[in-house]
């Protein structure tokens, strides 16, 4: 599991629920910019990972099961850091 795969899973999860990443964040009670691409790396180029709290909130808000999200982490077998 790597940085790219987690962020890609969030994008897929949002689409599966008919939302954009910002829409999913807002629906889940998070700031709409929580999952913006600009927040995925620090100003120094270091990867920023989404918090477990944010992931839990999107799972709970959609009524999904944790497995529904985590199966998406490996959905793209060619998922390399980009």
Describe this protein's structure.
The protein has 82 residues and is mainly α. It has a single domain, classed as 434 Repressor (Amino-terminal Domain). 49% of the residues lie in helices and 0% in strands. The chain contains four helices and no strands. α1 crosses α4. The longest helix has 14 residues. The mean pLDDT is 92.
Would you spell out the secondary-structure blueprint of this structure?
Elements: H1 3-16, H2 21-27, H3 52-62, H4 66-73
Helix pairs in contact: 1-4
SSE order: HHHH
Report the strand count: 0
Q: Please give the largest β-sheet.
A: none
> What do we call the CATH topology?
434 Repressor (Amino-terminal Domain)
CATH class: Mainly Alpha
What is the global morphology?
Answer: globular
Note poorly predicted spans: none
Q: Estimate the helix proportion, in percent.
A: 40-55%
Short description:
The mean pLDDT is 92.
Supply the key terms.
mainly alpha, 434 Repressor (Amino-terminal Domain), 49% helix, 0% strand
């Amino acid at each position: 599991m790597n940085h790219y795969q987690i962020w890609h899973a969030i994008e897929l999860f949002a689409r599966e629920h008919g939302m954009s990443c910002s829409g999913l964040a807002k629906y889940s009670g998070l700031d709409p910019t929580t999952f913006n691409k600009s927040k995925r790396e620090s100003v120094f180029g270091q990867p920023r990972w989404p918090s477990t709290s944010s992931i839990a909130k999107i799972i709970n808000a959609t009524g999904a099961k944790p497995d529904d999200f985590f199966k998406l982490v490996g959905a793209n077998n060619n998922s390399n850091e980009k």
